[in-house]
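Q: I'm writing a short explainer about Toll-like receptor 7 isoform X2 for a general audience and would like to include a description of its predicted shape. Could you first generate the structure from this sequence?
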Amino acid sequence: MFYNVSSLFLKLLLLITYIAIHWSILWSNIQAAELNCCSVYGVHDVLVANCSDLNWTFVDLRCVPVTTEVLLLDRNNLTTLTNGSFQTLTSLQQLSIKSSNIQSIEIDTFLGLGQLQNLNIENNQLTDDVASLNPQAFRHLTHLKHLFVGNNQNLSQNLKDALVYLRNLSTLSMDGSETLQLGTEFSYLTQLNNLTLYCSKVTHVTNDSFIGLWHSNLTILNLINFYLLQFDPDYMDQDTLKKQFSDDAFQNLNSLEVLRIINCRIGNENMARKFKHLINSSLHTLYLEKTHYAKEFYTPNATFEYCILSTNTTQYLSQLTLSYFSWTNSDIFAVAPRVVSSPQWRYNIKSIDFSNNVMGWLGWKFTLLQAALLEKLEVVIITSPSPENEDSSPDLGLDSVKDAVQSPLLSNFFKSNTTPAIRNGQRLDRKEISTNNAFFHDAASYHALPERNDSLHTEPLRREGTFLFETNASHTAYVKLDSISERMFITFSNNSTNTCAWRVRLPLSLRIVKFMFMLQGDKDYGNQSVQFFQTEGEAANLTHLYFVGNGITRGTGRIMGLANLQLLDLSKNALILSPYFFDDFPTLKYLILKSIKNDDFFRRVSIDRIIQNLIELRYLDLTDNKLNYLSPNLFFRNPHISHVILSKNRFTSLPLKMELCTSLKFLDLSGNAIIYLTVQETSSLTKHSENVQEFFFLLSENNIACVCSHFQFIKWIKSSDFLDKKGNYSCTSEEGLLISTGVLLQDVFGFYRQCYGYNYLMISIVLLLVMSFIFLMAYLVHRFRTAIEAYLVRIFVKAFRPMKSSDYKTHVFIGYADEDVGFVRHILLRYLEEDLKVSTFVHHRDLGPGYTDQQMFEAMRDSWRILLVITQSFLNNYDLSDIIMKYASHSVTPVNQGRVVLLVQQTQMYNIPGSLYDVLEDSRIIVISDLSAPLDYVQRQEIKQCLRDIH
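A: Of course. Here's the predicted structure. Afterward I'll give you a sentence or two in plain language.
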């Protein structure tokens, strides 16, 4: 007996175990189905799992293959990383958990990640508390080379204690402490060469701030966002400033090659003193941004004092042996000539960038007068802030131009980076999983911007190749400074016209000139002129010329010698040029004429004449020029044209003959006045896309009309896969409503039926009735004359008798707002359907697929009574309320006079439209004070009385 009991118990136990195992498997499958799984794809034989933006609250690796090498968990809500979260991913090499609200990382979180080389946990909520991040959490990452932990809650000390475990680090980003201090703990990092410090909490940079890097091989240093270290000269003396940011702070950085300082508002002169220990060092790239005082100055004397870089204040800067120099967005008003033409710069500098400063007055252009002495200068960028707060064009790398046209933006067209991989609809940015973060660029990629000026001449030039620009802009020097001689600035001639001419020469090595939003001023004087001239072959290396928004009014003469110019940008000027001006650039491939401010520009010089001799032209940008017509044979002489940008103009049709543009890959007609394209135009575009597989056509921001007369055009939008936004545009319907073509084209046959179905149906019915009527009349009149007369009498009598509930498909149509569905469902319907036994139509329950408006109208038409629940939500928030009330008022006829009944919220009694009052008796307006309370006896009887004809 004991044996039998034991056997039974064992069988029961096995059954329970079997059920538990299968239930756990089933539950896991259910959870996996509900889980937002990652996108998994391969990039150059690297397996990537992208789990970003899934709102995860914990790390769940069920959708991640164990062989994953790159895992992206950015922008989730993980809060805590628990022990062993990644231990199954033994092949993982790169892990990114940026911006995921991480507040704590347990000590064994990274267990099993011995092969990890790149870890990014920037922009989280980690602190120096051990409970938030224990330094020993990094002991498992023995092969880590790149660590990014900046932009946390001032995480600095705990990270320093963890460096003993991270001896292989070559790249590090971290937060700086209040007193910036990189001590002896950094001596462990013998391979560190790239360091970024987020300095939002830093208030002091001392002589010993970088002492721990004395023996390091650090080559790149980035200091970013000193929000608390801002100097105001009115309230702080220089001695106090030196205590905050020591002039000897960089004395321990012997191997530094690249230095970037961003948003350190201590003043330009003070910043220029920080580089004395970098003289004769290996530093070749210096990038400074937003170094001017936070205070704004409005008087000329104060502006000159704080915003001019004189030879005295830049004595250390001019002695650096730099190749790439950039000082941007720092309110620099002028630079003394000897700063840029020092011997160290003359034989080394390749790129100078003074972007987004305030050197926008003609009288101060000669601060870079001696730039022509820079023998290796390749890139010059001088820009002032744009009046529209934007640049006209991005930097273009013509040697690595992509032919891909998947993006309508000019910047994407000219990007030199490799195309990011796309798998399963996800785009992988290689920079996100690269060993460098956003600030770790190759130094050679920095385009600087100096300009080549040789000498000042007030006499006019009388030689071939001279080009004269005239502008109304001028500027008067308000003060004299000992450090900058007054004679170095422009001096006006004594004649009555107050004109002045100065000539500019180009360095032999110069490739890129970017001169944007300059030549502005007080307009106190008359016309001034700028004369460009070149000797033979002097400008032969120039490939990019940006001359944008410079207030030029006229250009006369010719520019000669630009034998290899590939890009010319004259956007946002008010130029008047001769027709033959562009004939001197036979190698030009990219011509940008955006937003020309002279309305007569294209009337004086036609576009056909501009490009007729540019046989190498590939890119033409005519954005925002109020154009409404182009010659159909415009590109007859330009066989290589591949990109045409005509956005923000006034074209109403396709302005080009596609048969002549056999190489066209990109056509932008966005932002014009196109309502529709004809069948001939759409056919030419379709045929062109078949011949040019990479063709891309932009049509967004046009006033497209989604009307029945343009049905073929709307259908073409759906079938064309070379359109931007995948053919999903905003358009105007027959009723004047703004709708989306994507929504409209989800049911093409439905749209066709809506447009033509009614007409065809009516024609068919009419024909059928005519035929039937003729046949029947002939037959009936011949044989059943008496019966026909009796039948007509009966039909006539029925047409004027009162209608009954049995004559309709539904007893009661209930119109209500979506917010009042609770009252309708739980109170009103129970009374009508359960107590009164009537059939009802409510849109939450009875609407089917298809057009909502049409179904609502059909339901009201087929209902004996129309019961409207008039509330504030119905009158103010319900989109169909006006249409329903108008239909209800028009549905009252002599054969059904009591068709409309109102249940009115007491507070809305005076808001009932007059169209309803006119067709209602007072007995058919039932007042309801509280929609959440059941109907009382009086209300129930009133409703029953209004529906009495049903029974």
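A: For your explainer, you could say: Confidence is low (pLDDT under 50) at residues 28-35, 390-466, 471-498, 521-526.
Q: Perfect, that's easy to follow.
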